């Protein structure tokens, strides 16, 4: 019959193996920093695909008194990629009015901004008023019509 010590050792071994798998998965799925959407900030005067610190971009948008569409995702998430396509269809209509931030939570800078919000799944979007309060949040993939609906509500504030 296994002793308490042997059970503890097995549990520690399983936890260590899981930790290694997580590190390997995150390391192998790290996004290409030059890839569009890695940590892009639309509507902030940056060129498409340009990267900058998401925290700085978020704070600058609020300092400028602009509403923010904040979209959290992962580099290897299919739903996140599909939603980003929908967003890119819609954002040209709103780029002068709303700051769009696409933040990858599997990047250190993205993790820092993600800590400020409470969510468990991606994609998760926040539609943030000019005073920094969240008007709406949505977890899951939105199509172009859904993105447009939330942006219109944000601008109607």
Describe this structure in words.
The structure is a single chain. The protein has 157 residues and is of the alpha+beta class. The chain folds into two domains: 1-30; 41-156, Glutaredoxin. It has five helices and five strands. It has helices at residues 4-28, 54-63, 78-90, 108-114, 144-156, and strands at 41-42, 68-73, 99-104, 124-128, 134-139. A five-stranded mixed sheet has the order 1-3-2-4-5, with helices on both faces. The model is unreliable at 18-50 (pLDDT under 50).
For the biggest sheet, the summary is: 5 strands, mixed
| CATH level-two architecture of the largest domain | 3-Layer(aba) Sandwich
Overall CATH class of the largest domain: Alpha Beta
Strand content: 15-25%
What is the number of independent domains? 2
Element order: H for helix, E for strand? HEHEHEHEEH
Strand order of the largest sheet: 1-3-2-4-5
Q: Ends: how far apart? A: 66 Å
**Contiguous runs where pLDDT drops below 50 for at least 5 residues:** 18-50
Mean pLDDT across all amino acids: 79
Q: Tally of extended strands?
A: 5
CATH topology of the largest domain: Glutaredoxin
Helix content: 40-55%
What is the CATH homology-level superfamily of the largest domain? Answer: Glutaredoxin
Structural class: alpha+beta
CA gyration radius, whole angstroms: 19 Å
């Amino acid at each position: 019959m296994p002793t308490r010590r042997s059970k503890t050792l097995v549990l520690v071994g399983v936890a260590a193996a899981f930790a290694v798998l997580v590190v390997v998965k995150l390391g192998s799925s790290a996004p290409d920093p030059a890839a569009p959407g890695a940590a892009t900030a639309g509507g902030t005067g940056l060129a498409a695909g340009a990267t900058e610190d998401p925290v700085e971009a978020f704070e600058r948008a609020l300092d400028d008194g602009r509403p923010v569409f904040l979209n959290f995702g992962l580099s290897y998430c299919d739903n996140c990629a599909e939603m980003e396509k929908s967003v890119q269809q819609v954002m040209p209509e709103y780029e002068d009015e709303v700051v769009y931030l696409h933040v990858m939570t599997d990047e250190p800078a993205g993790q820092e901004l993600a800590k400020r919000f409470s969510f468990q799944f991606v994609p998760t979007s926040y539609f943030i008023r000019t005073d920094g309060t969240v008007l709406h949040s949505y977890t899951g993939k939105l199509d172009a019509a859904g993105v447009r609906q939330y942006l219109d509500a944000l601008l109607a504030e």
